[in-house]
What does this fold into?
Amino acid sequence: DSGVTQTPKHLITATGQRVTLRCSPRSGDLSVYWYQQSLDQGLQFLIQYYNGEERAKGNILERFSAQQFPDLHSELNLSSLELGDSALYFCASSASGRVSTEAFFGQGTRLTVV
Amino acid sequence: AQSVTQLGSHVSVSEGALVLLRCNYSSSVPPYLFWYVQYPNQGLQLLLKYTSAATLVKGINGFEAEFKKSETSFHLTKPSAHMSDAAEYFCAVSIFGNEQLTFGTGTRLTIIP
It folds into this structure.
């Protein structure tokens, strides 16, 4: 158990809908990262937050947004969903905002868009 | 921009044989390099990392990797494979000041009894 909790584990929704994925980082970790893993794109970095502030942005679509709350949990919001958004979405956390510090991954949320 | 290339999407080795998973990187500045393992229906777990200290890095579960700048490589090895090593392995790169991991496409390791 990495200590990073992601909910829900599975999500099935229709095209055009909006969903929210939740991540609780390890106790004491200030930084949260979101990654998308799909068969055609592989593992891609989406966005990073550090202590409530956006720190880095990767290949995140405009239809996607995220935030980190004062209690350090994070949410990833996906809207106007398309079939191609079906993927495994991982959250990771680390103590610092530095990637050289080990990042611990949650078990992921598997999103299926039908 | 930095990138990694993993040679071989599938590797099969016999139990007790040497495991060698290949990773080559591209980076214009000194990189940080990582190997992660993903077991079925699990998240990623860090095996080991190189952050400009010793070039031979030892990780968990008996794995190690050697950073070779001249070859731009960071191959993962384990002297003797166990059945429990069957999983998908990802090489990743990052650089100072760009705090995101860029992953390779992964190598699925199968252990033959």
